[in-house]
Amino acid sequence: MDGLDWIAVDWGTSNLRAWLMAADGTILDKRSSDRGMNALSRDGFEPALLDLVGDAIGHGPVTVIVCGMAGSRQGWAEAPYRSVPSAPPRLSAATRALVHDPRLDVRILPGLKQEQPADVMRGEETQLRGIFLANPGFDGTICLPGTHTKWVQVSAREVVSFRTFMTGELYALLSANSVLRHSIGEGWDGEAFSEAVSDAMSRPGSVAAHLFGLRAEGLLRGLDGARAASRLSGLLIGLELAGARPYWLGQPIILAGASDLSRAYESALSAQGAAVERLDAEAVTLAGLVAARADMKETTT
After folding, report:
1. Which residues, including other chains, have CB under 8 Å from residue 83's CB and lie 6 or more apart?
2. 124-152 pLDDT tens trace
3. 86: which strand partners?
4. Helical spans, DSSP H, in the chain
5. Which of 52, 92, 281, 292 has its CA at 20 to 30 Å from residue 184's CA atom?
6. Residue 300: pLDDT above 80?
7. In what order do the strands lie in the sheet with 82-83?
8. Per the confidence metrics, is the pTM higher than 0.90?
């Protein structure tokens, strides 16, 4: 591809995203596939990347900067975690992946770990770097909603502590693989969501009962599928907010996640009087990867 300088990659558990970048920061192309870490063996990462972007590389060599699960123990090449408190790792801490195609120069950024309570992140540290670039003076809490939502306490552009909540994965499991699969439908009911958030935060010990109540109301009262889905989301997010209260109570909050999910979190937090600013998750991920590319340029000048 004419003008290609490097490739930015966000390699998640379920998906692979790549941005083909010019030297001046212009995005020449964006590509994605469903070949996330879970779908690959260790020797499958290079072929998956080449299937996605190989036609654009030409004679190479091309630098590929990767964040996310490609650096996990089950990934392409393990990139050891850095311990918090820590700034998001720079490119000098990246692991160089073994490649067979000489056109590739692959650098995988490390994640962050916390010893007590035990917790880890991969990929989110790159989002955090992008957020710090957009908000250099921010001290407070960053919430990264997703399959495994991260609540991150930050100060002076460092990660102080963080907690992970499996809320998104619980929603997926309950809506698709439990008795609730017969009750959950498409659509959104904001009122039902807000009521469920309030119920879960005020009576977290009753959430399991409220969950089965979705099934019972579907059978006995014809509970609408969209309303059931919204209540399920509200119960799980409300339970999460109850557990994450030390992170968000009285703190300024930045949210960066998929737009629909971030709106749900913003609605739930705003109802608690929290001050929330939303950022685009894809934009901050790419900004963090661009910053890592700038690290390389600094070391060669």
Report:
1. 112, 113, 114, 115
2. 999 999 999 999 999 999 999 999 999 99
3. 159
4. 45-57, 124-134, 167-177, 190-202, 207-221, 225-243, 245-248, 259-270, 281-299
5. 281
6. no
7. 82-83, 112-114, 119-121
8. yes
pLDDT the model gives residue 2? 87
Counted residue by residue, the chain has a size of 301
- Give the number of other CB atoms < 10 A from CB of residue 132: 23
User: Which residue, 116, 127, 130, 128, is CA-closest to 155?
Assistant: 128
Cβ(25)–Cβ(44) below 8 Å: no
Q: Which contacts qualify for 282-285: CB closer than 8 Å, 24 or more apart? A: 282/17, 283/130, 284/127, 284/130, 284/131, 284/134, 284/256, 285/10, 285/67, 285/123, 285/126, 285/127, 285/130
Q: How many CB atoms are closer than 10 A to CB 172? A: 12
Amino acid 161 reads S
Quote the Cα angle for 191-195-197, to 5°: 115
Contact 130, 291 (CB under 8 A): yes
Residue type, 199: D
What span, in angstroms and rounded, lies between the C-alpha atoms of 289 and 301?
A: 19
| CA distance to 88, 139, 149, 214, per residue, from 84 (Å) | 9, 16, 18, 40
**Residue 232 near residue 174 (C-beta atoms within 8 A):** yes
Pick from 258, 257, 264, 251: nearest CA to 141: 251
Q: Which 8-state DSSP code applies to residue 248?
A: H
Other beta carbons within 10 Å of 92: 11
Residue pair 15/36 in contact by the 8 Å Cβ criterion: yes
Return the half-sphere exposure (C-beta side, CA atoms, 13 A cut-off) of residue 173.
Answer: 9
Residue 81 is given by DSSP the state: P
Cβ-Cβ contacts under 8 Å for 8 (sequence gap 6 or more): 18, 19, 21, 65, 286, 289, 290, 293
**How do residues 27-43 score in pLDDT, each as one tens digit?**
999 999 999 999 999 99
